[in-house]
Amino acid sequence: MVGEAGNVDELVTVADAHKPDVVVLEAQTQHLDDLTHVDAAMVVVVGDAEAAAEWIRFTQANVRGLVHADDPEEELVEAVRRASDDSDYVSAGLSGELLRLVRATLPRPLRAVRTHTPLTSREAEVLQLVRRGMANKEIARRLGLSEKTIKFHVSNVLAKAHMASRAQLIASGASI
Q1: Beta-carbon neighbour count of residue 148 at 10 Å?
Q2: Are 14 and 100 in the same domain?
Q3: pTM here?
């Protein structure tokens, strides 16, 4: 270890002074633009799965590794080794979350849902979020509604689409 910093400004200064091969830092996506001044591979320690939505932004910086804060110490050591070899690394604790995030953000081919009754705008919105693989609880949080209300909308979409389950709805690639 050649240096330690308490914030991004200090990190830039320390990195300029010591020219480290690898920098390990806690996830703080609001400062990613400032990190472009750091000429080192970076390993980011992600505090929780909530930070998953920001992982894509980390890949746009010089981040070579992602490690969950609860992962064993060996995961961080491996991430640092790989980053110093100019390789990428995602810890076991984050790989499943990262796959889920990628699946949720990739566009899928859309096919129309055949209904006899048109979907309301809210049902259409819920359908889009269901197709992204979001759970009712996540949809409720995003839309500012109760989970019970989301269940009601999902049930209406299923009935109007003549489908038996949300899995069938997702697998069909259905949209409006």
Answers
A1: 9
A2: yes
A3: 0.52
